[in-house]
Specification:
- The complex is a heterodimer of chains A (292) and B (291).
- Chain A is mainly alpha-helical and 292 residues long.
- Chain A contains twelve helices and two strands, in the order αααααββααααααα.
- Chain A has a two-stranded antiparallel sheet.
- The radius of gyration of chain A is 20 Å and the shape is globular.
- By secondary structure, chain B is mainly α.
- In chain B, helix 2 crosses helix 8 and helix 3 crosses helix 8.
- Chain B is globular and about 75 Å long.
- The N and C termini of chain B lie far apart (63 Å).
- The chains are: A mainly alpha (292), B mainly alpha (291).
Chain lengths: 292, 291
């Protein structure tokens, strides 16, 4: 069925940039910041939606992306100026912004029913293929795919071109600053990409699933390998595989697709961890010594 | 005067106050142990427990769902501990991994329950966003008893938990079991979270643990005042949030509580800012005298 492949394609286009960006976030210990961003774009989306009265518009994207970058600034502000410890700063910032978003929805619930809390959670991957784009009588894709494709290209280009500086930023920011690198700019770039990604995923898979797509493939890949390019490739493959497997499992069990995909990625991660653990145990048994 | 005569409003105020007090008291130790985001993970991880408990018993009794919630929350903390002990993954990755796996499985289960056509999805989705009206009077009594129990536990062992946060080695030397105390305090957090989740929902629950303490922490460094002030903030947030949500129809309570709590943090910051500035100027004046 064509619809199936369009849905899988959409899921992959969400998973690919997430699993690539997730590797850098994980190395930089900023995974939860990514989670925070994916929640905090909600007020941005609501405000842009209320101003422009449509869901697929450029202003909405812009509003949410700005919101995402503002979230990192806000967390930084809470952490440095207000001196709340890092984890509590993240927790405070994103819950406050998310609460604002929910309140905004509640305030204007009378004027529209298109935007509700449920879509924050589940997204509407199932119906994304209905918005088809026909060109010269051929089906060329869906609205969601055409939104996600440029982002995917952008993320791929950024990672290929700027692998070096991004690596330095992720692993040793202080060293980068010592070399005269503007690490702040690279952080801004990655965070903007994560924010834009969060907005698109908000529409197709639901904002809450973003953190799973960010961390699970990346963590599984990181358990397998230590070489960054290899980790990136592995992470992307795990993400894509998870999308395909997750889709068919969801179809088989007749459940919603996005959480199933994340569950399958979780299964991949747990399996990787378990195999590693078994291996370590066997090594310890055969050598008779514990070496960490 | 007839504002408080309405039983729904009475229930809402009582419920939010009980939840606010417990969450902020337990949150002090989560905050001090730098485990603020673990609370977020636990509140997400509770979802599959609730769904499985419902599937197994087919009832929507609060205590059954609470039991499922506590078991799931406990499994999640164990999973987090094991992951951080056996892998090279950083603490924040571990939190994110456990959070997303449990939550995704929970959502799959809920969508499966919805698919099988069993009525109750309305009840289970209250757990996602929270609905204070879904809490019955009996629930509030049960929660109040649990809250008193948890507060007594904290009051009894606050010194041990304090050392657990700052100087676990000392505790070990003194012959206390770190594992046991750790289990005790994380069970307390799980219970507090499971209690509050019906009222404010999965996403916002962790805020009830963290934000009051974040505010109180700006005003004091000592443990007992910290506990007292955060509980006070918890109550103020609960009352303020519940009151604001009644001002307009169809307003959710949870988000209002968070907004009020955030406002409290801002006020605390302003107070600290000015008190520090007066201190600074006094010091520089005395120094000028000395010099």
């Amino acid at each position: 069925m064509m619809g199936n492949w369009l849905i899988i394609m959409t899921a992959i286009l969400v998973a690919l940039p997430a699993s690539l960006l997730g590797v850098f976030l994980m190395m930089r210990k900023m995974v939860m910041v990514g989670d925070a961003i994916s929640h905090a774009v909600l007020p941005g989306i609501v405000v842009a939606y209320l101003l422009t009265d449509s869901r697929d518009s450029f202003p909405m994207l812009l509003g949410a992306a700005v919101m995402g970058v503002l979230t990192t600034v806000f967390i930084d502000f809470l952490n440095r100026r207000i001196r709340i410890q890092q984890d509590a700063a993240i927790g405070t910032a994103f819950t406050f912004l998310f609460a604002l978003g929910v309140l905004l929805i509640a305030f204007f619930a009378g004027t529209n029913t298109d935007l509700d809390q449920e879509c924050v959670l589940y997204g509407d991957l199932e119906t994304s293929f209905l918005d088809q784009r026909i060109w010269n009588g051929y089906l060329v894709g869906t609205g969601a795919i055409f939104q996600l494709l440029p982002l995917n290209l952008l993320v791929l280009i950024v990672i290929i071109v700027a692998l070096r500086p991004l690596t330095v930023w992720a692993f040793n920011s202080d060293f980068g600053q010592l070399l005269g690198m503007k690490t702040g700019r690279w952080q801004l770039l990655v965070m903007s990409l994560v924010s834009i990604h969060a907005v698109f995923s908000f529409e197709s898979v639901g904002a809450i699933m973003v953190v799973g797509m960010l961390v699970l493939p990346a963590a599984a890949a990181y358990l397998i390998s230590n070489k960054l390019p290899f980790v990136l490739i592995l992470s992307a493959s795990i993400g894509i595989l998870g999308c395909i497997a997750g889709f068919f499992v969801a179809l088989w069990l007749n459940v919603s697709i996005a959480p199933t995909i994340v569950s399958i990625c979780g299964l991949f991660f747990t399996m990787t961890w378990f195999i590693q653990w078994l291996r370590k145990e066997r090594k310890t048994l055969s050598t008779g010594s514990v070496n960490n | 005067m007839n504002y408080f005569a309405d039983p729904t409003i009475q229930r809402m105020f009582l419920g939010t106050i009980v939840i606010g007090v417990t969450a902020s008291a337990v949150g002090v130790f989560a905050f001090l142990r730098k485990k603020a985001l673990v609370g977020d993970a636990i509140s997400h991880a509770i979802l599959p427990g609730v769904a499985v408990a419902y599937l197994a018993t087919e009832t929507r009794e609060t205590w059954v769902l609470m039991l499922g919630a506590v078991i799931a929350g406990w499994l999640a903390t164990q999973f987090m501990d094991t992951l951080s002990r056996t892998t090279k993954l950083k603490a924040d990755s571990v939190v994110a991994i456990v959070l997303s796996i449990f939550f995704a499985v929970g959502l799959v289960l809920i969508s499966w329950i919805q698919g099988t056509g069993k009525d109750a999805q309305a009840g289970l989705s209250d757990f996602l966003f929270g609905k204070i009206a879904a809490i019955s009077t009996q629930d509030i009594y049960a929660f109040a008893v649990l809250a008193v129990f948890l507060l007594l536990l904290l009051f009894w062992k606050y010194k041990t938990f304090y050392f657990l946060a700052f100087n676990a080695e000392y505790l070990k030397v003194r012959g206390f079991s770190i594992r046991w105390n750790d289990l005790l305090i994380s069970t307390a957090s799980i219970l507090a979270i499971a209690m509050g989740i019906q009222a404010v929902g999965v996403v916002l629950m962790s805020a009830l643990l963290i934000i009051p303490v974040a505010g109180a922490r700006m005003l004091t460094f000592r443990i007992l005042p910290l506990l007292a002030i955060s509980v006070l903030f918890g109550v103020v947030g609960a009352v303020g949030g519940a009151f604001s949500s009644t001002l307009a129809p169809n307003m959710p309570t949870g988000p209002w509580i968070i907004v009020v709590l955030f406002f409290i943090v801002v006020v605390c910051f302003v107070i600290r800012y000015f008190s520090e500035r007066t201190k600074r100027t006094t010091i520089s004046k005395t120094q000028r005298h000395d010099g």
